[in-house]
Amino acid sequence: MSRTRNDILISAFLVLLLVWVVWEARSWPFRTRLFPWAIGFPVLALAMIQFGLACWKAIRERCYVDAVHTHGEPVEQADAGRSGHQARLEVPTGEEAGVGLDPKLERQRTISISAWTLAFALGFWLFGFKVGSLLLSLGFLRLQAHESWKMSVFYGLGIYLFFLVAFELALGAPLPPGVIATSLGLQSFDWYLVNPILNIILGR
């Protein structure tokens, strides 16, 4: 649990730090805030995904330990009864087993995370921060993290709601709608669905 706890603490720290960075840049001139926003929002989305996955892993580990203590189920038997996905998540990694990572695998991981960071930046530029975070988070969790559709959609919607509630509703800082919507003279793509719902909820 120590490594999982460290993952949670580090991810939470990164999320708070990145929220502070993008919030501080909100009142800067557009050209000045473009760089911290272009870098900050993609990394913030990835940090939030990592934080959510770390919390989910900690909850599952705690439930598993409690089940073993309560029912006296041997660890080996419990391992045999778990699904392949669960077992795969809890197999010690190279670092945990004291074995160095294969250089090829390490290079693949570096390329993968770099590619996804660029994909998030491109998605935010094309679709805006809210819609881009929803689509890219869903894609990352489903294609890269191999999470279920249910968990991918859940996390994607959670990140979308974070940007909507924290920045646009609570802080009154409208986020750019994306170059596609702007070039078409439209509001953010989600505006046409979400705004009528917000009008009803908030009594506008």
List keywords for this structure.
mainly alpha
Q: What does this 3D model show about the protein?
A:
By secondary structure, the protein is an all-alpha fold. It has one domain. The protein contains nine helices and no strands. α1 (2-24) runs antiparallel to α2 and α6 (129-144) runs antiparallel to α7. The radius of gyration is 20 Å and the shape is globular.
Topology:
Layout: H1 2-24, H2 30-71, H3 75-81, H4 84-90, H5 103-127, H6 129-144, H7 149-170, H8 179-183, H9 191-202
Helix pairs in contact: 1-2, 2-5, 2-6, 5-6, 6-7
Q: How large is the count of helical segments?
A: 9
How confident is the prediction overall: mean pLDDT?
76
Poorly predicted runs of 5 or more residues: 74-99
Give the amount of beta strand, in percent. Answer: under 5%
Structural class by SSE content: mainly alpha
* Broad shape: globular
How far is the N terminus from the C terminus? 47 Å
What profile does the largest beta sheet have? Answer: none
The share of residues in helices is over 70%
- Rg on CA atoms, Å: 20 Å
Could you write a compact summary of the structure shown?
This protein has one domain. 78% of the residues lie in helices and 0% in strands. The protein has helices spanning 2-24, 30-71, 75-81, 84-90, 103-127, 129-144, 149-170, 179-183, 191-202.
